[in-house]
Design goal:
GO cellular component, one term: plasma membrane
InterPro entries: ANF_lig-bd_rcpt, GPCR_3, GPCR_3_9-Cys_dom, GPCR_3_9-Cys_sf, GPCR_3_C, GPCR_3_Ca_sens_rcpt-rel, Peripla_BP_I
GO molecular function, one term: G protein-coupled receptor activity
Protein name: Extracellular calcium-sensing receptor
Number of strands: 43
Largest sheet: 8 strands, mixed
Strand order of the largest sheet: 11-10-12-13-14-17-18-19
Number of helices: 37
Shape: extended
Membrane topology: Multi-pass membrane protein
Distance between the termini: 90 Å
Helix content: 25-40%
Length: 1392
């Protein structure tokens, strides 16, 4: 291959292992594909080759052993040994085609094959020549035998020589081809540092909150809070020492100690100091509430059991920073962190989250205020040399201030800074000097709060010279440049003038009185109020209803910190500015941040503008909300978002080549090799290409094989791993395609073939015709002398057959010339295989005849009678039969490549059918079981045993009728349906699903036609197990299956079930909700029963895992299914009767539950508290079944109540079905009204006749029961989801197109719409809807019936501590109790 170099005058040939890129300016390596010995095909080929070689070697040894016998000598031993040797090499030659190819192996495989094959064929020809000469020897004065042996040797070695020369010529003028593979004042210590007004402000905020609480008549009335505030300086040893003083509760006096214990501690500001305090106080259960410690490590309840905070954990902040960086497209960033627990922990989480988001970090450097200047200079030097334009700073404001000033000195500006809450709103560093470096910085901060009363409190503060209250003295003296020391003492000490006492902080601008950024001040305010609310709950506890042992309340005269700790976990209040305060299990608040941006106003004042919000409790993709109308200012006062990437995106037609030693964000873009492509829009292009090919096939323009090739191409496109805008890798084009010049798509290859007009074609034709003529001439000579003894002795039949096969071998090469077609491709391989087999078989037959002839000369030998003319003909017929068998096998391989639908036996007939422009599939269980009985027409049809599925079918019909009558949805398109009855059979469910996707229900038996008419989507099935089976089968065909009642969490696995979606929540959420509900009621010792199917087993597995995490123990977990034998049911009853747990978790479907309560009623097992799933908790049929009192007081989760206008009326009006004479309608009608239609009424039957106009509204049965309306609504939503998908695919405006030219599954996952009742319908990435459940309680009524009372709601989209909401006041428990019963693990601890 030649390439044209841009600065060269000639093309330079690439080496053998390379080929040119698309611009022909560079040689890129080839990728090798080969057959390995570990593959099945490689193993089989090796085994066959070794067997064949061993067999020929054994035959050779036999010949060698009998070499001196007349038989071997007469068979021309030299040629026989040479033939066997060449056959051995032929078998071994195939081994060179296995394993990684190299230059030598590529040469060897072609050379060995050519030479050995030539040697084999030349031996055959030589043997033929020998036979001819033998006949000539009978003529008088014939001297031919004298040159017979030299002629044979010459013919063999001349053929071998010609082949060797041919191989040399080929290697001289061709190259070796390697296949491509697309494969956180009181102390007697000297305070050296100056006063921090911010920390003093925090202390006065706490004092402000306490003063508010003490003045409140609603919160802690009659109780006065005090405080003891220490200065930590900031130092970890001083923090721990202060915490020990507070914990011991002793105040130093002159003569004695007085006990003053604290109930809670608020602080500290930094994570590192807080860790020291929390570690010290944790074992003593004294609550520590921080307003600013964000280290994620503090959420560890084992290490810090008494820690709380009113600021979100860095875990959320770090993840939010990574998402923020990704949101703005910055994939190449630098990182600076404070060398402390706060910075190191936060940065570690950020790096992990950034890696998941595809963000690369060029450097990550620690800084600390005590570091030498040399280190800061090194950091500055690293920043100057870096190529990233964005710096993520997870640092404390004091530490970062030092670095920013060094950057300013060296004029390092123009970089985009991303900050954590530790400094992004730190007013102390917001100076003009620092702004020059970090202008336009963005970052997360706690939400600001408007606290005017606090500012008034701060400005009205006055200093005190009394011991123990001197916090404001230093600030006062600093601000007003005076001293509070009396005048004489001040003059004696040489100090400044004394303060007059008329000074006021109102007239000053200081950080102490600045509350413009009150986010952390608000956190202190909330922390103080949280303690107050906990104390309020403790002090207002009602006797005998307390949370402590024996339902006791805390001693109000001796409050213990651990009691306050308990109530802190229960606080949930709203501040006066409307902010909700609560703590989760880890002591953390809800993670919400404000996205702030450093901006300046006209006066040059730096303010922190809020440009957006981040809420971690929201769904992915909805966590960021930018403020409308607020513009951000970026680095360099730019209004456009800056770019920070290591490498530009690769364009289509190229791929990423990662540089060794560098991050994955740094790469080179290398053009795709020949035969490869890359395209970021490959998924859309692939399916458009396949759709176009499918249309052409329907029009008869292309064969079925081309459609399959297009399908393979579209799958390659859709599986492209690039989810970014650039191309990540190059994919291999299918064999029938080649890459275009831009390497961004695959085009059909131009067909290259050898023509009769080319020199090589002419030569091949000449040699073929010459060889065929020569063979035919010899055959004619043999025919002319067929009656002579020499021809007859040479086995004329085998000779003629051998010459005929040689003629065909020569002519076979002609099929490789000219434009190929399907028949010529089949013919060339078939002809070669058959003629070669025929030739070799004749040769072997001749050899056997000679061997037998010599055996016949032995005394008393009767071999010839077993090898006479008849037997020889029989062997030839068997050879021809084997050749015919090979022909059939080869033909079958080609037939199998064509996609043909074959229908065997009786076709599947839908139970409900209506034609339309687009037909939807439906799979329901109209009957509970399938009767395989031959129709005898001697009895009425079996009664309808299951009417629920009939209701589901009616819901689907109702939705389709609504859509067909709509002018907004699918205008001009009429939907039809095909609904099948699977009768609870998984096998039948799979069968009808295949019928729907094949679209060949009406095909006659044994007929063949291309698959067409498949449905775009299937609605159903009712249970999980059939859905799993169907999804597994139809998944590869990308036909969506939308279920209304299959809840198994396993179906969310998109790898196994790629085309499955559902309108009912997954059991994953239900199982977790059940465990949370059990934990909420304090049940730690429970039993469990589950349906022994995918629904029950998978659901119980998730429940068990979650229960273990929550500290709940399972005494037993029993599988049950309605078909279990009586002994199994008895075993379950005995297990439950012998258990000590009184709560039973029932993960059962309604049919299993119905069977189970009958057994409980029979054995009178009552008094158990049942917790149920949506499978049975709201089932009205179970509520009226015999023994339903067993379940009184049950509590569980149910699908949310729903109402679909007009659906009930439609269901009760099934008469329109009768117009089509539907069998299902007839069966349903006769069963419901106990009548019989006249056309099937038998003589002598005394039963009333059906009219078809009976009134269903007066009937009370399972069909008229609308308690399952939520499930009917799921069917309704599923049909509408498919309709909306088709609407989008067909590009419907006023009218729709006629062709579905896209992947319904991909579009179905993207739909989002509202039903006419206002319910929003959408699917997540796993094909699941939003998980919301009603919490249902079985409450018995006076008349003995049961009422399903909704007592709460579970919403999985909310934060975990807010997902479960239950009204305990309306609950009824087992045995009609109105108070929850505790069932702990220790049986002695049971309380009423």
């Amino acid at each position: 291959m030649s390439v044209l170099l841009s600065d060269s005058a000639e093309c330079v040939k690439c080496s053998l292992e390379y080929w040119s890129n698309e611009d022909h300016s560079l040689c890129v390596p080839k990728v090798v594909e080969f057959l390995s010995f570990e593959e099945t095909m490689g193993t089989l080929l090796t085994a066959i080759s070794l067997f064949g070689a061993s067999l020929t070697v054994i035959v050779s040894l036999v010949f060698f052993y009998f070499r001196h016998t007349p038989l071997v000598k007469a068979s021309n031993s030299e040629l026989s040994f040479l033939l066997l040797f060449s056959l051995t090499l032929c078998f071994l030659c195939s081994l060179t085609f296995i394993g990684r190819p190299s230059d030598w192996s590529c040469m060897l495989r072609h050379t060995a094959f050519g030479i050995t094959f030539s040697m084999c064929m030349s031996c055959v020809l030589a043997k033929t020549v020998a036979v001819v000469i033998a006949f000539k020897a009978k003529l008088p004065k014939n001297t031919v035998p004298q040159c017979s042996l030299p002629l044979q040797r010459m013919s063999v070695f001349s053929c071998i020589l010609v082949q060797v020369i041919n191989q040399v010529i080929l290697f001289s003028y061709s190259t070796i081809y390697i296949f491509q593979h697309f494969s956180s004042h009181s102390l007697v210590l000297a305070i050296i540092s100056s006063l921090d007004p911010g920390e003093l402000q925090y202390a006065y905020t706490m004092m402000f909150a306490i003063e508010e609480i003490n003045n409140s008549s609603e919160l802690l009335p009659g109780v006065t809070l005090g405080y003891s505030i220490f200065d930590s300086c900031p130092s970890i040893p001083l923090s721990v020492r202060a915490s020990l003083k507070l914990m011991n509760g002793y105040k130093e006096g002159e003569d004695s100690c007085k006990e003053q214990s604290v109930q809670a501690v608020i602080g500290e500001t930094t994570s590192t100091s807080t860790i020291g305090i929390a570690s010290t106080m944790g074992p003593f259960h004294i609550p520590v509430i921080s307003h600013s410690a964000t280290c994620a490590c503090l959420s560890n309840r084992k290490e810090y059991p008494s820690f709380f905070r009113t600021i979100p954990s860095d875990l959320y902040q770090s993840q939010a920073l990574a998402k923020l960086v990704k949101h703005f497209g910055w994939t190449w960033v630098g990182a600076i962190r404070t060398n402390s627990d706060y910075g190191n922990g936060g940065m570690a989480t950020f790096l992990k989250a950034a890696a998941k988001e595809g963000v690369c970090v060029e450097y990550s450097l620690p800084i600390y205020r005590t570091d030498p200047r040399k280190w800061f200079l090194n950091v500055v030097d690293t920043i100057k040399k870096s190529t990233s334009k964005v710096i993520v700073a997870f640092a404390d404001g004091t530490d970062l201030d030092i670095l920013i000033k060094e950057l300013y000195i060296q004029n390092v500006t123009g970089l985009q800074w991303v900050g954590s809450e530790g400094w992004i709103t730190y007013r102390y560093i917001a100076s003009q000097v620092n702004y020059a470096v970090v202008q336009g910085a963005v970052g997360f901060a706690a939400h600001n709060a408007h606290m005017p009363e606090l500012k008034e409190f701060l400005t009205n503060s006055r200093p005190s010279t009394q011991p123990g209250n001197q916090g404001l003295v230093e600030l006062w003296e600093t601000v007003f440049s005076c001293t509070l020391i009396p005048g004489a003492d001040a003059q004696a000490q040489g100090l400044v003038t004394s303060c007059s006492g008329k000074e006021s902080l109102r007239e000053t601008q200081s950080r102490f009185t600045d509350v413009s950024d009150a986010s952390l001040l608000n956190n202190i305010y909330k922390a103080t109020y949280a303690v107050a609310h906990a104390l309020h709950l403790l002090l207002t506890c009602q006797d005998a209803k307390g949370p402590f042992e024996d339902n006791m309340c805390a001693d109000r005269n001796n409050i213990q910190p651990w009691q306050v700790l308990h109530y802190l976990t229960q606080v949930n209040f709203t501040t006066k500015i409307g902010e909700t305060v609560s703590f989760d299990d880890m002591g953390d608040p809800a993670a919400r941040y404000a996205l702030v941006n450093w901006q300046t106003d006209e006066s040059g004042y730096i303010h922190f503008e809020t440009i957006g919000d981040y809420d971690a409790s929201q769904a992915v993709g909805q966590q960021f909300k930018m403020k409308p109308g607020v513009k951000a200012i970026w680095a360099g006062q730019q209004t456009q978002v800056p770019r920070s990437i290591c490498s530009d995106s690769c364009l289509p037609g190229s791929r990423r080549a990662f540089v060794k030693g560098k991050a994955i964000c740094c790469f080179d873009c290398i053009p795709c090799a020949d035969g490869e492509f890359s395209n970021s829009t490959s998924e859309t292009a692939g399916f458009l290409a396949f759709s176009l090919a499918f249309i052409m096939f329907l029009l008869g323009k292309i064969p079925a094989r081309t459609v399959l090739v297009s399908l393979r191409l579209s799958l390659l496109y859709s599986l492209n791993i690039s989810m970014l805008s650039d191309a990540v890798k190059c994919d291999k084009c299918p064999p029938e395609y080649k890459s275009n010049t831009k390497r961004n798509n695959c085009d059909l290859k131009a067909i290259e073939f050898l023509t009769f007009r080319e020199l090589m074609g002419v030569l091949l034709v000449t040699f073929s015709v010459f060889g065929a003529c020569l063979s035919m001439t010899i055959a004619l000579i043999f025919y002319h002398y067929r009656l002579t003894p020499i021809v007859r002795a040479n086995n004329s039949e085998l000779s003629f057959l051998l010459l005929f096969s040689l003629t065909l071998c020569f002519l076979c090469s002609l099929t490789f010339i000219g434009r190929p077609s399907d028949w010529s491709c089949m013919l060339r391989h078939t002809a070669f295989g058959i003629t070669f087999v025929l030739c070799i078989s004749c040769l072997l037959g001749k050899t056997i005849v000679v061997l037998m002839a010599f055996r016949a000369t032995l005394p008393s030998s009767n071999v010839m009678k077993w090898f006479g003319p008849t037997q020889q003909r029989l062997s030839r017929w068997s050879e021809q039969g084997l050749a015919l068998l090979q022909l059939l096998i080869v033909s079958s391989f080609y037939k199998s490549e064509q996609r043909v639908c074959r229908l065997m036996g009786e076709p599947e007939e839908p139970q409900l059918l209506k034609t339309g422009d687009i037909v939807l599939g439906g799979i329901f269980s109209f009957h509970s079981s399938w009767k395989n009985i031959e129709p005898t027409y001697m009895h009425r049809p079996l009664p309808l045993q299951c009417t629920r599925a009939f209701q589901f079918a009616q819901a689907m019909l109702f939705a389709i009728e609504e859509i067909n009558n709509s002018t907004d949805l699918l205008p001009g398109i009429k939907l039809g349906y095909k609904m099948y009855d699977v009768c609870g059979s998984i096998a039948r469910a799979v069968s009808v699903a295949l019928s729907l996707i094949n679209g060949n229900e009406d095909t006659a038996s044994m007929s063949e036609k291309p698959c067409s008419g498949s449905v775009p989507a299937i609605i159903g099935v009712t249970s999980s197990s059939p859905c799993m089976a169907i999804s597994t089968v139809i998944g590869p065909f990308h036909t969506p299956l939308v279920s209304h009642f299959a809840t198994c969490a396993c179906l969310s696995n998109k790898v196994r079930y790629p085309s499955f979606l559902r309108t009912i929540p997954s059991d994953y959420y239900q199982s977790r909700a059940l465990a949370q509900m059990v934990k909420l009621f304090g049940w730690t010792w429970v039993g469990a029963i589950r349906s022994n199917d995918d629904y029950g087993n998978n659901g119980m597995a998730i429940f068990t895992e979650t229960a273990t995490q929550l500290g709940i123990c399972l005494e037993y977990s029993l599988p049950f299914i309605r078909t279990d034998p009586p002994e199994q049911k008895q075993k379950i009853i005995e297990t439950i009767r012998g258990s000590t747990s009184k709560v039973i978790i029932a993960f059962l479907n309604h049919m299993d539950m119905d069977e189970l309560i009958e057994e409980f009623a029979h054995h009178n097992l009552t008094g158990y508290q049942w917790v149920g799933t949506e499978g049975w908790i709201s089932d009205s049929q179970i509520a009226i079944a015999k023994g339903h009192y067993i379940l009184d007081g049950s509590i569980g989760l149910a699908i949310r109540k729903a109402h679909v206008t007009g659906l009930r009326e439609f269901m009760l009006d099934v008469k329109p079905l009768n117009s089509s004479g539907n069998k299902l309608f007839t069966e349903f009608w006769e069963t419901t009204f106990g009548c019989i239609f006249n056309h099937i009424k038998q003589t002598g039957e005394n039963q009333k006749e059906c009219t078809g106009y009976e009134d269903l509204t007066g009937i009370k049965n399972s069909f008229s029961d609308m308690s399952l309306m939520p499930i009917f609504n799921n069917v309704y939503k599923g049909v509408y989801a498919v309709a909306h998908t088709l609407h989008n695919i067909l590009g419907c405006g006023k009218m729709c197109s006629n062709t579905i030219a896209s992947d319904q599954q991909a579009h179905l996952k993207k739909i989002r719409f509202k039903t006419k009742e206002g319910e929003e319908v959408y699917f997540n990435e796993n094909g699941d809807p939003a998980a919301k459940y009603d919490i249902i309680n079985w409450q018995p009524k006076k008349d003995g019936s049961v009422e399903f009372v909704t007592i709460g709601l579970y919403d999985a989209s909310l934060p975990e501590d807010k997902q479960l909401n239950i009204d305990n006041l309306t609950l009824t428990w087992a045995n009609a109790s109105k108070q929850v019963k505790l069932f702990p693990l220790n049986n002695d601890q049971h309380r009423p």
